[in-house]
Structures are given as C-alpha cells and as structure tokens.
Amino acid sequence: MAIYNEFKDKVALVTGGAGGIGKATVRKFGVNGCKIFICDINDEVVNKTIDEFKKEGIDIDGVSVDIACEESVKSMVDACLKKYGKIDYLVAAAGIYKDRKLTEMSFEEWKQTIDINLNGVFLVTHLVLPQMLERKQGSIIVFGSQAGIRGSALHTHYAATKSAMQGFARSLIYEVAASGVRINCVAPGVIRTPMTMNGSAEKLEKWLETIPMRRFGEPEEVANVIAFLLSDDASYIVGQTIPINGGSVVNT
Ligand SMILES: NC(=O)c1ccc[n+]([C@@H]2O[C@H](COP(=O)([O-])OP(=O)(O)OC[C@H]3O[C@@H](n4cnc5c(N)ncnc54)[C@H](O)[C@@H]3O)[C@@H](O)[C@H]2O)c1
C-alpha cells in the first residue's frame, strides 16, 4: 500500500462520506494523517461514520447536507473551513443511482438526479475553489462512471450526469490548472457499495458476465486511485477520466 506523507495535516472534504467509496476514501486519507470533513444526507449516518473513524484514531468531523441545496452546501463548507481553516482536497462522491426507463420517468425524477449528481458538484466546487486558487494549491476528484462512458440501461438521467463530470473536469482545468489546482474524474465500473449491491442476484450475475476480471471492484480499489490522483505523485495529471472497472470498458 502506498504511503502519502504529504497528506499529513492536509484537509480533505468528502461529500457522500458515509457511502461506500466515500468511507473507503476517508480511511485511506485518514490513515495517512489527513484531517477529514465529511458530509452526507442525514445526521444519523454522518455521526455513525464519524464515531467509527474516531475509534480508528482518524481526525474527522462532519455535518449533514443536502448537496443539491445551495444554502445547505454553503453552511457545510463554512463549517469545514471554520473547523480546519482550509480545504486541500475535495472528493465529490455524493450521488444517487436509480433505475427508470426514460418513457416512465417523471420530470421530478429526472431533476432529482441532475440536482444531486450534477448541480451538487457545481455547488460544492464553486464554494471550495476560491480558497484553493488563493493558496495556489488544491486537488479535486469528481465521479464519472462506466455508465457515462458506454451508457447503461434504465439510466439516461444517471449516465447524463456522469458523462457531464468528464466534461466538467476537462473544462475546469482551463480555469484553474495554471494556478496549481488540479481536477480529475474517476469512472468506476461496478463497485461493491450500497449503491449497487442491493440489486437482484440475477442482475448482479449479468453484470459479472460483462467484467473480464469476473469480480466486482472494492471501494478501496477506487480510494487507492483517488489517493494517487490527489497526491503529489499525480502532479502532471489534470482533466483526465480514469476508468476503474476490471476491464469492462477499455480504450476510452
Ligand atoms: N458503486 C459503483 O459501482 C459506482 C460506479 C460508478 C460511479 N459511482 C459513483 O461513485 C460515487 C460514490 O458512490 P458509492 O458507490 O459510494 O455510493 P453510495 O450510495 O454508497 O454513496 C453515496 C452517498 O451519497 C449520499 N447522498 C445521496 N444523496 C445525497 C444528497 N442529496 N446530499 C448529500 N449526500 C447524498 C448517500 O447518502 C450515500 O452515502 C457516486 O457519485 C456514484 O455515482 C459508483
């Protein structure tokens, strides 16, 4: 396992920090001495996650947020800055994934996915970036998906937001990279988290057949790539989308 000495005393803000990939990322950064601020949808999951990591000796705090609500995101970012004084790393993991045919999708359902997966990333990045630009350092990860690269049945709304993350990352670099702030996008395949593993056995079996490695990814395998991309080892990588998928999509 790689050790990242530069994470010590840095501050990482992880949205969706109580979720599968969010928690794996918290642990990866926490064991490397990073201070962590998490946010997630309600106090119960946030407090449970904080308690769990405090027991592991990780310096962590957090609040509940609705990532789609401007006011809520502002008070969350303010709380993080008040607690730790800066944000070095942003991991924008909060997201939802719902099955629905386009013809059966209400406009409300469409908008909910766009609000959380796309507008939520705008809101948090918009508020975190100014202090990164001012300090001329910072690194951001947004989440694409295999669904955004090759499409996914029943997920026009989800896939649209995930393709958008690739465009977001590769466009924002023109505004921030020269100032020393980096952004990249990770595009996981099927990872074993609450988001995917509550599907039927039949659905999971079908997914497995499409993966050359014949297994699902572990959240830690995504967290490892996030750590590398945020670290100084990735100092010349910006605007890229990195697939993490056991080979299910190659040559993107
Ligand atoms: N698991 C996979 O196979 C997979 C594949 C591709 C991309 N991704 C992406 O990775 C990211 C993390 O997903 P995960 O697998 O850890 O899922 P997860 O469901 O375990 O975690 C997502 C977290 O986001 C939180 N969240 C949802 N709506 C929110 C809101 N309005 N405000 C604040 N928090 C909210 C949830 O409570 C949850 O804890 C997501 O952006 C997802 O789209 C996951």
Automatic annotation (TrEMBL):
Coiled coil: none annotated. SUPFAM superfamilies: NAD(P)-binding Rossmann-fold domains. InterPro entries: KR_dom, NAD(P)-bd_dom_sf, SDR_fam. One of its GO terms (molecular function) is 3-oxoacyl-[acyl-carrier-protein] reductase (NADPH) activity. It comes from the Bacteria. Gene3D superfamilies: NAD(P)-binding Rossmann-like Domain. GO terms for biological process: bile acid metabolic process. Its EC number is 1.1.1.100. It is an enzyme of class 1 (oxidoreductase). The keyword NAD applies. Keywords: NAD, Oxidoreductase. Residues 10-194 form the Ketoreductase domain. PANTHER family: DEHYDROGENASES, SHORT CHAIN (PTHR24321), ESTRADIOL 17-BETA-DEHYDROGENASE 8-RELATED (PTHR24321:SF8). Belongs to the short-chain dehydrogenases/reductases (SDR) family. This is 3-oxoacyl-[acyl-carrier-protein] reductase FabG8.
